[in-house]
Every structure is written in C-alpha cells, then in structure tokens.
Design goal:
Helix content: under 10%
Oligomer: single chain
CATH superfamily: Jelly Rolls
Order of helices and strands: EEEEEEEEEEEE
CATH topology: Jelly Rolls
Shape: globular
Strand order of the largest sheet: 1-2-3-4-5-12-7-10
Distance between the termini: 51 Å
Number of strands: 12
CATH architecture: Sandwich
Amino acid sequence: MGCPSRLDPLDYSGPARLAYDVSRLRFMDTKMALQVNEYFDGKVKSIGFENGEGRATAGVMAAGEYQFGTSEQELMKVVSGELNIRLPGETDFQSYPSGSEFRVEANVKFDVRVETPTAYVCFYGG
C-alpha cells in the first residue's frame, strides 16, 4: 500500500475537520483557520491566519524578483534572510535584513528582490 495519489476530503465528527478544495488547503476549528497561499509559480508561499490581534501571514520567498500589490496597509517583518524593497516613489531598493521591518501603504505596488530564501511575517490593517 503506497501513498495516496491525491488528497481526499476527510470528515471528522469532532470540533476539528480538514477541508480541501482545488485552490487551497485549510485546517479549520472553532478558533482558527489556516489558509495556504502560493504565488509566482511556487516561489512565494505563505500561511494566513487570524486571531485576536488581527490578520497576518507567515511566509517564505525563494530567490527572485517580485511585484506585490496591497489592498490595505501592511507591516512586513523580516524573520530570516533579507528583502530588498523598492517602495512607490522610490528609485532605489533598500535592504531589510533579518530583524528589520517596513510598512507599505494601501492600494500600491512595490518591488521585491530576494537573493537568498527569506522568511517574513506580514500584519494587515492599521
């Protein structure tokens, strides 16, 4: 008996259940839902969640160049590695190494350069 070739939905009668659909995998219980996101052909991955402190994502970016858009204000904290960021109106990239953070305003696009795999946490809203 080998590994299954695809993930089938499972139904639990207890407080937690695993739900699967084609675009995302979520672990759901009465307190928290995790949402797995994948961008740029799998080079950027994050897990989104919400708790009493608000909404956030924790993720990893592989080496590459990316452009992101925002729909609300974001606070980005670099956990490991380094992000090189060009915010709107800037001509040069600025380095944000592990332990640093930066803010991005709502409804803008910003450019990211990553030279080595980098972990981050993004907090959404005011």
